[in-house]
Amino acid sequence: SQQGEEDPQALSIQEGENATMNCSYKTSINNLQWYRQNSGRGLVHLILIRSNEREKHSGRLRVTLDTSKKSSSLLITASRAADTASYFCAPEGWGKFQFGAGTQVVVTP
Amino acid sequence: DTAVSQTPKYLVTQMGNDKSIKCEQNLGHDTMYWYKQDSKKFLKIMFSYNNKELIINETVPNRFSPKSPDKAHLNLHINSLELGDSAVYFCASSQRDRDEKLFFGSGTQLSVL
Predict the structure, then answer these.
(1) Which of A21, A94, A96, B94 has the fewest CB atoms nearer than 10 Å to its CB?
(2) pLDDT tens-digit profile of A37-92?
(3) For A103, how many CA atoms within 13 A lie in the half-sphere containing its CB?
């Protein structure tokens, strides 16, 4: 399946540091998306990268995609306490968005 | 002005009962989904409807039955609830062939005692 698997499972950093998390998947995709989930809330879309793109930026977010390795990374620069959340990748193919268990990021002041 | 709203937010019930969760979206999207998030945060797709037609039906027990009366609504009915059904259930919607982003509801936390 094209289920995303995030790594690491958990990440603890200090404000101002960068946070990097990775995603791997198994089959071909149309695009790959990243979502954030704050505790007790629904997921919120962050960024989408298409299968023919290699890198994308949005504010403090940078996403890369390597379709030959079937992997993606999400970099959050200059993290803030408000970035504390779980981050999920969702490879999309055939209309299915297959999430994993996410990376739990804790940013301490 | 909530885009995707689901009710109830919390549902506590006994084993063997039947319960329903309702979902409505006001985004004009043509596709709606049900996801189940377990205690380890793993988010698994259950069903998807496009224009009221079932298009994704993952390996889910027959006790779970989705119903889409119109494009803006997707309800989930669960019969004979079991302890293992305890989870957070999320409704989501998207517009196929456009920006393809998912918009999620805030979840229904189901606890089966």
Answers:
(1) A94
(2) 999 899 999 999 999 999 999 999 999 999 999 999 999 999 999 999 999 999 99
(3) 26
- What does A36-86 look like in DSSP terms, one character per residue? EE-TTS-EEEEEEEETT-SEEEETTEEEEEETTTTEEEEEE-S--GGG-EE
Quote the distance between the C-alpha of residue A10 and its chain's center. Answer: 13
Residue listed under structure tokens 């945060």: B41
| Cβ B62 vs Cβ B85: under 8 Å | no
Q: Which residue from A31, A44, A101 is facing B100, i.e. has the nearest CB?
A: A31
Q: Extract the tokens encoding B18.
A: 């039947």
Enumerate the residues of chain B whose CB falls inside 8 A of the CB of residue A45: 101-103
CA B39 to chain centre: 17
For residues B59 and A49, what is the distance between their CA atoms, to the nearest angstrom?
28
